[in-house]
Design a protein that fits this description.
61% helix; 0% strand; mainly alpha; globular; Transcription Termination Factor Rho, Rna-binding Domain, Chain A, Domain 1; 96 residues; 4 helices
Amino acid sequence: MNNSSPRIPKDPLEGKTLKAILTELYEHFGWDGLSRQLSINCFEDNPSINSSLKFLRKTPWARTRLEKIYLSFVQGKLAQGAFTHSGRSTMSDSEE
């Protein structure tokens, strides 16, 4: 087998813990943003990483929904990165 062949992109969830996913989403959206996307009490009433993890681990539908939000988030970051790194930018060097 040829080792130089392009590698198929792996699943963004592969190797990610639920804590890592939740933390990354929290750092980007905050609790208010997360609760707008997934209206669950642990994001709305005295939220914390630990209380949210406890709920998400016991509630498969909520964890699945959070993972879908994460996948959309990652795809958005990749699309934005592809646009930014394509050599085209909406800002000139003098505006940055």
